[in-house]
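batch_manifest entry 22 of 60
target: ethanolamine kinase
source organism: Ostreococcus mediterraneus
requested by: lab member K.T.
priority: normal
notes from requester: please return tokens only, no post-processing; we will run our own comparison against the previous entry in this batch. if the run fails, retry once and flag.
--- input ---
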Amino acid sequence: MRAGLQKYMAVVQANELGRFKLNRRLVLSRCSLQPDTKIKFESLLGASLETVDIFPVNSGFCNSVYKVESNTGAKIIKLYSETSKLRTESQLRGVADCLLAQVQMSPGVSALSPEGIVHDYIEGAALSESDLCTNLDLAFTVATVLRRLHKLPIPKEYGNEPLIWGWLESMLNCMKMRKPLLPHGITVAKIERELYFLRGKVEAENFDVAFCHGDCKPSNLLVDLESRLWLIDLELAGPNYRGLDLIKLFRTQSNRFSEGDLKMFLSNYCAKDEFLAVKLEHECRICEILSWLEAAMFFATLTSNGEYSDETLSLFEQRWLSFQQSKCSVWSIE
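--- output ---
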């Protein structure tokens, strides 16, 4: 298994890939940072920006990520956006990061606040969908790590209810207060009906609740230069359905999806307990419907928050279509 991971990293390094392979020409000058961003940086670092070099890594809807270099080494700083508040509570930010850092499953944490977090910098490569389909050793390692994650005790700060329902209710309430810009024929009332229909179906299944990643897509798994796997981007971690973590690695709507890949992955995850693997495959199918609805509602909420663009609307339409397709593939149309 180790040899397979090392081979994977050799290919990654040969092709100069990896989440933190930065282009030095993208270095931010200090003056390009907004005053409020400077304050957040200096608060998290406990030092003046005059002593560090800052490099942008990526920026998304929920956070902006930077690599910070100083004479003491490198760190990763993540600043949370206002949009991130749709699915995270300020008092829970950093709880999962600190827990998983303690058990050496995610990068160490050196500072955190409601505004952001500072991680140890790890040189490595984020995974892609194709990695899990083409590298069996890597897929086996991911299955083993997720099994370990899901067996961790849920921190008392979270309670035991699946976080997914709170996220969806929060987004629904936002859409009710600020009318989103949706395609013709799709209304907030229709989304609400779909949500409560789906919630009834899922809760009737009585799935187990475990400590989950919450956004367990391949790009949130990092392999370092020593072929060790790390979990990153843990803002959505907490109690949830295991199927949500597992199916985000193997979307059935993806062109790369293979029934055989999913079955083999679940068999490894279940340590060859085939009865449990079949049970989890059923859970994954239903949780995929839930994950597409979550994604569609997220982009619908962005339009109601004034973040409308053709791209946002297109992302909503794609996720809504995937939601409908996955729903029809599991249940007959009623």
